Amino acid sequence: MITTSTDLLVHLHTLGYDNPTRDPWWWPHSGTFETLVGAILTQNTTWQSVEKSLDALRQVGLLTSEALAQVPIEALEPLIRPSGYYRNKSRNLQALSRALLDDFGDFETFAVQVSRNWLMARRGIGNETADAILNYACYREAMVVDNYTARLLEALGHPQPDYLHVQSWMLEGITDGCRQVFPDLPQAQCYARYHGMVVEYAKVNRSGRSVDVSVLSEAL
Fold first, then answer.
1. Cα(205)–Cα(24) distance, rounded to whole angstroms?
2. The model's pTM
3. Residue 137 near residue 35, CB atoms below 8 Å
4. CATH topology classification for 33-137
C-alpha cells in the first residue's frame, strides 16, 4: 500500500516512468523563456496544441520577452490560436513579458529573483502555472501538481480538497525520497522529475477521468 509521497516516488521510478529520452528536467527546453511561454499556453489544452503554437512563435522569432513585449497583439493571436483561449493567452503573455522586463530587465535575472507572490499577482497565473514557471523555467524548489496528481492520489485513497493540499501531501517527507531515488540531483530537479513521472503514469493508466492504480498495486 502506498501511504507516503516517498512510497509513490520509489514505485513510479521502479516501474520505469522516469523517461530518459526527455529533457533532464522533464519539461522540454527547461530553464528557458520558452518554458515560461509553454506554462501559460498549456492551460486547459494539450501539449500537442502547445507545440504548434511554440513552433509558430519560434518561426517568427517571438520566443523572447523582448519580442513578445513589442509585437502587435493582432499579430500574436493567430500564432497562439492552436492552444485555445488565444485572446486571453496572447494578452497574458504580452503583459507578463512587459512586467518581466520592467521589474527584472531580462529572463536570466527574472529566473534568479522572481518570487511566487510576484507570479501569482500576474493576470492569468494561478498556483500550477506559478509553480511550473518556478520549477521548470527557473530551476527553483517548487513542487508542481496538477489534475493528474489529484486523481492519482484519489485513486490511491488519499483524496485532497485542493491544489495546496495535494502539493502538501506530495512534499511531506519527500527530501528522503529524493535522496533515495535521485541521490545526485538537486532537490528542485527531483521535484521536476517526480511530477513528470506522475504525468507519464497517469497518461498511460487513465480511464476517463480516473487513474488506474492497479499497476502500482501489483508492484508492491
1. 23
2. 0.97
3. yes
4. Endonuclease III; domain 1 (1.10.340)
